[in-house]
Protein: Transposase
Organism: Desulfuromonas soudanensis
Amino acid sequence: MPRAGRVVADNEVYHVLNRGNGRAEVFHKPADFAAFVTLIGEAKERFPVKVLAYCLMSNHFLCGAPHNTCYVKRELM
C-alpha cells in the first residue's frame, strides 16, 4: 500500500536524508566525503537550492532545506 502524500507548507524547513541499504556504508574514505560536498556545491550552482545545514556520516547523510528548494531532488535523480 503506498504511503500517504506529504504535506507541503511554505516557509518550512525539510529534513532530507538518505541512508545506505541495510545501513551499509556509503562513504568509505575521507575523499568520498569531500566528493559529496563538491556535489552539493555543484547542485547549488545548477539549481536554486538552499542548503541550511548538512551532516555526513559513514552510512548516511542529512541536510535541511527550505520547502521551495526541495523540488531539486526530482531533477537530480
The beta strands are 13-19, 53-57, 60-66. The helical segments are 30-46, 72-76. The mean pLDDT is 80. The chain has one domain: 13-76.
